[in-house]
Every structure is written in C-alpha cells, then in structure tokens.
Amino acid sequence: MSDFKPAPVKPPISLDVLQQVDVRVGAIEAVADIPSSSKLLKLTVDFGDHRRTILAGLKKERPDPQALVGLQALFVVNLEPKEMVGEMSEGMLFDVGYPDGIRPVFAVPEAAVPNGARAG
Asked: pTM of the prediction?
C-alpha cells in the first residue's frame, strides 16, 4: 500500500445534500450466487424492521462468500431500486477501496449496534 496515492477531494457539498443519503447498519443474513454474473453476489440484509436484497460486486474478492453471513456493515438504503442481471437491488453496500482499485473492505461499526441504526 505504500504506492497508494489518494484521489483528489471531491468538490464541497452542503450538509443538506449529505443528510439526504441514508446510511444504515445491516446484518448480512444470507449470501447467494448469481450464476449469470461474474462479479455480483445477492445479499439478504436485516435492517431491524425489514429485510432487503442488495447486490454487491464481491464474487471475485471473496473466496468464501458464506463467511460474510452474520457480519454487520454499512449500506445506503435510499437509492432507487435497480435491476441488474435480472435481479433487483434495493440499496448499496458502503465499502472502502473499490473506487481506488484496491481490494474493498467493509465499513463496519466498531462494536455491535442494532440493525437499522443510522450512520451520520
């Protein structure tokens, strides 16, 4: 990682714009393969008061996707649902590293918190 060069900081946004993004803690309850995709996995995520299906491009980075079951992570939950490879995704895994071309890692709470807790 010594060769890593951080990307330039994006232009400033207002606090109002930032507060529009709803990031919540969810626990991954199940991971399923999507045979028609070379990179997407189908996550079933518990947000405390409901569950969602979230597709995440983790297949190439995780040798044992089932090891993700039980982990809490951060998810953006107010994105418009999007269909990908015939499956509907109802949010986005909030990870660290993907835009920089490094192996992504999850953004996780430092201790267990209730599923559905908001980040911000």
From this structure: 0.91
